[in-house]
Amino acid sequence: MQGEHGEIGLVGQVNPSKSEEGAGSAAGSLVVVTVEDGDPEFAKAIEEQLSVVTAWWKAGPEPGEGFVQTILRAPEERHDVERFLHTSGIRDAAEDEALVLYVTSHGAVGTSTRHFLLLPSTDTDRLPATGMPTNEVVIAALDSQARHVLVIVNACEAEGIDVELRALARDLVRPGSPGRALNVVATTGARSPVLGREFAVVLRMAFEWFQDAAGIARPYLSISEFMQAVEEATDRLNEERDLSLAGPRTVLQGKLGTPIPTLPNPGYRPKPQVVTEAREEVAATPEELEYWLDRASGRASRDDPGWYFSGRQELNRRLTSFVKGPAGVLIVTGTAASGKSAVLARAVTLSDSAFRASPRYAEAVSKAPADTVPDEGSIHVAVSARNRGPLSLIEAIGTRLGGERDRAQPAADALRQWQEGLRAFFTSRQKGTVTVVVDGLDESPEAGACIRDVLVPLAGYARGSGVADRISIPAQAADSTSAQPPSGPSGLRLLIGVRSTSPGTPGAADATGVPGLVQELRLAFPAAQVVRTDGEGVQADIAAYVTALLAGAPWDTDPKGIASAAERVARHAGRSFLDARLAAEQLRRGDGVTLLRDQLWLARLDRGTVGLFEQDLNQVGDDGLNREEALALLRATAFGLGRGMPWAQVWPAVASALLQARIDHADEKIRRLLEGRLAGYLTHDIEDDHVVYRPAHEQLGVMLRQWPQPPQETRGTLDESG
User: How many Å apart are CA 141 and CA 91, to the nearest integer?
Assistant: First the structure.
């Protein structure tokens, strides 16, 4: 399609026409027909509509991206519209071109029930001759070759196009043509005037809602999602302005729940692909990597690649040595927030070929101590056991390894199908050792079953993995063949991240007398190595970590002062990197020197996560938030299932239930929360094509679910509880 600069002076386009040299076809086309009535206020209303319409269906930065925008401005008579339909190319839209038509005008339904657009020259007593039949404009788009068409008619009595359009739509079916998604939306009902500024506001509200609160993580929306958003925006407008607008409705719809290219998602942000999918669940996030790159670039020495790449060297050497060595099992453990996941994430990330190939990270990788950098490709699969049972966990491992279920096994026993499928996978491998990382075993609701039904059999299928030669798969105990040793030559390195219920001090485990997952793993894998993240050297590691976090703080005028502050925080933070981070963030935001002299603040730090959270919670007024509402919003995320809680209507509803009172303007308050001092207590993920939110660490989740905490809880009791 292409627009035209005609002598009428009504037609304009943002992008050059296809006929111009070097221009490529766009992903879509936006065609707009605006009919003014001479009223300056209505002209302003049209401008407000155009502002949001052209922002939603915007032109792309490169040929083949975004929407070519072709606009008819203020036609005087019917011929102007007919000429535009001919010259704009709307009827010739290509099959793979997403076509959007937006019409805004005064309108009327004749005694024949036919709907007309009212032009400045229209005689209302002679509508057929002087008005523009609205469905002629609509059908011009629907009868093009485009498989995806969206039409929005914003006119007086727009729903009046319904009867005639449904009759005409019978002629649009083309035998043998691929499925088409034709959607027509009318903004007004019978005897209702055109929505000028009101519909601009409704569209803007929906647009802004999709930008964040909707949390939809794919590039396109479905017509049902779009209609729900504009309906809810209409309800909000009615409430705010004491109106009674009925709201838009579809008069023709197709593929109700399917995302369609005529509805780009304003909130879509392509997720940076830092590592390959097989390692993504455990690897460092793009945000974490960028954070440490920024920290490194601000350091006095350009040879320092940042804490993420250079910190905790002894632990990182142990993991690197393991993934370079023979088959076996390595258990990475420590008390809550002692950095287990961070250590595993670093190893997984640095082993990834896509990460290593990125020029963005090449310098930091090259400057990291060589003996702490795993070989490229040495870790094959990394998954999280968070909220996974045995079937979900084995399926996650199996699919990422490239294995398949053994369909010869009973269909009702999917666990056994995967067990036998992975047995076949390892048996058929000709050579090499496979490395699998499973983090967050303690966050599985069926951790013991995951050990018994997934990890033990998995290690048993590969030789030299630190388990007995004869492995009995619990789900197949009656099958004598299940106890045979693996016949293939492939080996397995298995790294397991799991929280310990006792701190890493000599004799601590014996002193508690509490059997935990670490003990279960040691029984299952007698030859396994164990690496602790909370051993005797952890305080020095935390001090170095805090030093890196405080670099560049507003009060950072003396390197010795930063080192002294870091050491003091480390002494009070125990074995918790989480508490050290929270404390460092508070020191960076305020006057760190004064806080470090404040005995009340140090007492809060001694109480650990609870005390630091109380400190931040008491200051949320600075972010424009009410303390109790902010607490309820944070607590709500701790009750989410799966990967987290979606925003949309769910997060505000759960928070209101916890508060036992409605939170007015909840979306705006969530935005402030995510931009303020409490943002560091949350992380986000993607589940079922939606962005979801949860506490940044499981220890935070436990704290929020159990709130309010005992007022005198100390770090010692927190450490004992794990």
Answer: 6
340 close to 439: Cβ distance less than 8 angstroms: yes
Fill in the DSSP letter of residue 7.
T
Query: Residue 679 has what DSSP assignment?
Result: G
Instruction: Quote the pLDDT of residue 617.
Output: 95
79-88 average pLDDT score? 95
Nearest to 328 by CA among 502, 466, 188: 466
Residue 272: predicted pLDDT: 85
Of 39, 38, 37, 34, the closest CA to residue 53 belongs to 34
Beta bridge partners, 493, equal: 328, 435
Per the CB < 8 A criterion, the answer to whether 495 and 322 are in contact is yes
Return d(Cα 28, Cα 25) in angstroms, integer: 8
| pLDDT above 80: residue 14 | no
Prior bond to 708 cis, omega within 30? yes
Please name which of 15, 33, 94 lies closest in space to residue 261, comparing C-alpha atoms: 94
Pairing status of strand 220-221 against strand 260-264:
antiparallel
C-beta separation of 344 from 282 below 8 A: yes
**Strand-pair category, 433-439 with 260-264:** unpaired
More confident residue, 445 or 488: 445
Q: What is the rounded CA–CA span in Å between residue 264 and residue 150?
A: 11
CA-nearest of 330, 337, 331, 315 to 722 is: 337
Instruction: Kindly give, in sequence order, each residue whose CB lies less than 8 Å from that of residue 603, ignoring residues fewer than 6 positions away.
Output: 611
pLDDT computed for residue 302 by the predictor: 60
More confident residue, 506 or 697: 697
Residue 10 to residue 72: CA distance in whole angstroms: 5
Token pair of 141 as six digits: 């788009």
16: left (phi over 0), alpha (psi -120 to 50) or beta: beta
pTM for this entry: 0.82
Residue 508 has pLDDT above 70, yes or no: no
Task: Check if the beta carbon of residue 395 is closer than 8 Å to that of residue 411.
Answer: no
In angstroms, the CA 549 to CA 560 distance is 15
User: How far, in Å, CA of 482 to CA of 142, rounded?
Assistant: 61
Helix (H, G, I), strand (E, B) or coil at 202: helix
- Is the separation of the CB atoms in 533 and 334 below 8 Å? yes
Angle between helices 559-573 and 577-589 in degrees, nearest 10: 140
Q: Decide if 370 contacts 309 (C-beta within 8 A).
A: no
Residues 6+ apart with CB under 8 A from 234: 202, 245, 246, 247, 248
Q: What's the one-letter identity of residue 98?
A: A
Q: Has residue 604 got a pLDDT over 80?
A: yes
Residue 411 burial by Cβ neighbours in a 10 Å radius (0-12, 13-18, 19+): exposed
CA distance 587 to 593: 8
More confident residue, 464 or 561: 561
Q: Using alpha carbons only, give the angle 541, 386, 433 rounded to the nearest 5 degrees.
A: 75
The angle, 0 to 180 degrees and rounded to 10, between the axes of the packed helices 538-550 and 559-573 is: 130
C-alpha 89/C-alpha 84 separation (Å) is 8
Burial class (CB in 10 A: 0-12, 13-18, 19+), 331: buried
Residue showing tokens 């005198």: 712
C-alpha dihedral, 465 to 469 to 473 to 479, nearest 10°: 150
* CA diameter of the chain: 97
Q: Return the minimum-mean-pLDDT range out of 93-97, 300-304, 329-333.
A: 300-304
Report whether 101 contacts 31 (CB < 8 A): yes
Residue 179, CB half-sphere, CA atoms under 13 Å: how many? 7
Sign for the CA dihedral angle at 337, 342, 345, 351 comes to negative
Least confident of 62-66, 308-312, 467-471, 655-659: 467-471
Give me the pLDDT at residue 463, please. Answer: 59
